[in-house]
Amino acid sequence: MREQYREELEDINACLVEMANAVGSAMSTATTALLDADVALADLVIAGDDQIDAARESIEQRCFTLLARQQPVATDLRTITTAMRIVSDLERMGDLAEHIAKLARMRFPDHAVPLEVRPILLEAGHIAETLVAKTATVIGTLDVKAAQRLEAEDDLMDQLHRDLFRELLADDWPHGMETAIDITLLGRYYERFADHAVSVARRVVYLVTGEHQLNATV
Amino acid sequence: MREQYREELEDINACLVEMANAVGSAMSTATTALLDADVALADLVIAGDDQIDAARESIEQRCFTLLARQQPVATDLRTITTAMRIVSDLERMGDLAEHIAKLARMRFPDHAVPLEVRPILLEAGHIAETLVAKTATVIGTLDVKAAQRLEAEDDLMDQLHRDLFRELLADDWPHGMETAIDITLLGRYYERFADHAVSVARRVVYLVTGEHQLNATV
C-alpha cells in the first residue's frame, strides 16, 4: 500500500514535468505563429489548450484523492499542496501562450508584429521557452540551486520588456495605435509567463527548504 | 476537539471574507488615486499590499495545519483546498490594485488618465468594487445563485474594456503613446481583477455543488 502511494506521488511529479513540457511547446508554437503570421500554428495552440486544462484537472483530482485516502502529513502533505499550486501556475502559462496565439489569429493574414519589434519578441519567446524548460527540470529534480538561477533569466525578460516600450515610445513609431496596443499586451503576456515560471521555481524551493522566497508582487 | 475544528474552519472563512473586503478597499483607493492623481492614496495602497500578502500567508498556514492535524475528508477537505485557492485569487487581486496605484504614482504629478477616458475607468473601478463586494458575500454565505450572477457583472467589465480600446483607436487620439500604453495596461489590470473575482465565485460553486463551471481561459 505504502509502495503504491510513493509510486502515485512520483507519477504525479512526472505528470507535472510533462505538463510543463506541453506548456513550453505551446509557447514555442505560439511565438512562431505570431512572428510568421501562421494561422494553422495558432489554431494548434488554441485547440491544444484544452489538453493543458485537462492535465490540470487530472493532476488536481489525483492530489485530492491522495489527500483524502492517504491523509499525508509533513513533507508528503507539502509535496501535494505544492503540486496543486504548480499545476495552477502551469495552466495559467498555457492560457498566456493561447492569448498570444489568439492575437496572431486575430490579425491574420497581417503580421501582428512589425519588423523592428520582431527580434525583441523572438528573444522573449526564447527566454520563455528556456524558462519553462528549466522549470520542468526543477520540478523533476527538485534542484534548489537551479530554481534560484531561474530568477536571473527572468531579469532578462524584464529587460526585453523595457526594450519593447522603448520601441513603442520612439518618436517615429509608424505602425499606428492598434499595433501599439497589441505589442503592449504581448509584452505583458510574455512577462507574466516568465513570472509564473519563477513562481513555480519558488514553490519548489519552498517545498525542499521550507523557506519562502517571498516576492508576491511579481 | 471536533467543536474547535468547526470553529477554526468558520474562522478561516471569516478571514477570507475580511481579506476580500481589504482587497475591495485597496481597489477602491487605487482607482481614486489613479483618477485624482493622489500620490498619498497610491502609497497607501502600495504599503497596504504587504498586509494582504500577510493575510494570504496566515490563511494558507492555517489551512495547512488543519490538513495535517485533522486529516479531513469529503466536504471538509474540499472546503480547505478551496480556501487555499480563493486566497491565491484574492492575493492576486490585491497585486492588481497595487499595479494601478504604482502606475498612478509613476505619472504623478501628472494624471495618468486623460479626461475622456476617466468615465470608463471610473466605471471599471465601480464594477471592480461591486464584484469584490459580492465575492465577499458569496464566500461568506456560499450562495451559489449569487455566485452565478457574478458572471453577468463580469460581462459589463468586458464591455468597458472594449470601450477603452475604442477610445484608444479613435483617429484623433491626442495623448501620445505613453498614455496609450498606460491605458492599455490599466484596462488589462481591471479586466484581470474581474476575472479573478469570477474565478472565486466559480470555486464557491464547485465547493457547494461539486460541479465545475469550467472556463479556464478567462
Q: What assembly state would you assign to the polypeptide chains in this entry?
A: homodimer
CATH architecture of chain A: Up-down Bundle
- Number of domain modules of chain A: 1
Based on CA atoms alone, the radius of gyration of chain A comes out at 19 Å
Proportion of helical residues of chain A: over 70%
Task: Describe what you observe in this structure.
With 218 residues, chain A is mostly helical. Chain A has a single domain, classed as Methane Monooxygenase Hydroxylase, Chain G, domain 1. The first copy, chain A, has 6 helices and no strands. In chain A, α1 packs parallel to α3, α2 packs antiparallel against α3 and α4 runs antiparallel to α5. The first copy, chain A, starts with a helix and ends in a 9-residue tail after the last helix. The C terminus of chain A is likely disordered.
Provide keyphrases for this structure.
0% strand, mainly alpha, 6 helices, 218 residues, Methane Monooxygenase Hydroxylase, Chain G, domain 1, elongated, 85% helix, homodimer, disordered C terminus
Topology:
The structure is a homodimer of 218-residue chains.
Chain A: H1 2-36, H2 39-70, H3 74-107, H4 118-141, H5 144-169, H6 176-209
Helix pairs in contact in A: 1-2, 1-3, 1-4, 2-3, 3-6, 4-5, 4-6, 5-6
Question: Summarize this, please?
Answer:
Chain A has six helices and no strands.
